[in-house]
Each structure stands twice: as structure tokens, then as C-alpha cells.
Amino acid sequence: xxxxxxxxxxxxxxxxTERDVAAAVGAGADAVGxxxxxxxxxxxxxxxxxxxxxxxxxxxxxxxxxxQPLEEVRALARGSGVRAVQLHGGEGRSDYAAxxxxxxxxxxxxxxxxxxxxxxxxxxxxxxxxDAPVPGSGTSWDWTSxxxxxxxxxxxLAGGLNAGNVGAAVAAARPWGVDVSSGVEVSRGVxxxxxxxxxxxxARSAG
Length: 207
Ligand SMILES: O=C(O)c1ccccc1NCC(=O)[C@H](O)[C@H](O)COP(=O)(O)O
What we know:
Layout: E1 9-12, H1 18-27, E2 31-35, H2 45-53, E3 60-65, H3 70-80, E4 84-87, H4 93-101, E5 105-111, E6 127-131, E7 155-158, H5 166-173, E8 177-180, E9 185-187, E10 190-191, H6 193-206
Parallel strand pairs: 1-2, 1-8, 2-3, 3-4, 4-5, 5-6, 6-7, 7-8
Antiparallel strand pairs: 9-10
Helix pairs in contact: 1-6, 2-3, 5-6
The protein binds ligand LARABZUK.
């Protein structure tokens, strides 16, 4: 994983096909996400496992969940072979602690509502993902409301990003990395390789 380098960490989320994975990896993404939560992007453990097998070790594989029982999170994360778990619901500290003890890298998806920006590490996460209140909806929020993250704090900016606005978003919020789903799709759940390549290029030149 790109850990402390100067370049912006780029995650492409909601991949469903080998073509999506090839596009994200080929474009130079640092992480790829597979949605196991209720969503048009949802994949099963078997499909995800097949896709994860095609991802090189330098790219972090992430399973995305929302308000699912811990046993289900464990089963899907293990069954698919992802290395990181991203939680978007009301999961509590004890859930984070249990998953951390089992060795997964933990990403906490937190919606920014009315300018209230959650702090890094509140749940014991490794990476904080600041998102729109409805994750994966392609909606943006006021990125200028972010203030006060230290240089060592790993946090991802997400929510309504695309190749056309990621530069301004990065300039305003100075995140450690960015995450996108809708902005690299032609319709909900259908990724477009050219948009993925364009997004990674724009993000890299911004950060
Ligand atoms: O993608 C989904 O449908 C989804 C459903 C439930 C929980 C999380 C989900 N997605 C997480 C993400 O991919 C991020 O929210 C994403 O990077 C930002 O989404 P977007 O605004 O569509 O770029």
C-alpha cells in the first residue's frame, strides 16, 4: 500500500467485473473496492474472490459494508480475500476492535452532515473516509469545511468526485487520498475504463 509517499492515494470503488479491475489497476489505482452492502454495485463473495485474485499485491483490496452483522462482514471478507474492510454504517468501537484484532486494515466511512467533520481515529480506524451522507450516491459536500487534519492522518476524500472536480477538491481539502465510484461510471454500477483512467490522471496531477 502507498503508505507515506508524497503522491495522493487513489481508490476506485464499486468494481464488479474483470474489465473494471483491469481498468483500475492499469490506471495505477492504489486501492480497489468491492461493495458487499445493499447496492446496485453489490457483488457476492465468489465473484469478489475471483476479482481479488487478479489484483496485484501493491494494490489494496477493500470490502465495503454497511450495517451488516459482524459475522457476515467476517464471512464475506474472508471468503473474498480482501485485505481491508470499509464500514459505512453504525458499527461501534467493539466491531472495529474485533476486526482490527483479526488483522484487517480498517476504513471508516463517515458522512459529513451540515459541515460537521468527524475526527480521525474515533473508532480505531486506520483510514477515515469522509463521504456524502448517502455513500455511493455521487453527491458532493462542502469540502472546504475540512480543517485540521495533521499530515500523518490518513483520510480519504469521497462523494461526488470526478475527473473534472478532483483537482479543486484536493486543493481545498488537502486529503491523504481520494475515493470515487459514481464519477467513473456511465450508469449506476457500470464503470467506464476511460473515465477511470482520466480520474486517476487528474487526481495524480492534483496531489
Ligand atoms: O457504492 C455503494 O453503493 C455503497 C453502498 C453502501 C455503502 C457504501 C457504498 N459505497 C462506498 C463508496 O464507494 C464511497 O461512498 C464512494 O467512493 C463515494 O461514492 P461516489 O459519490 O459515488 O463517488
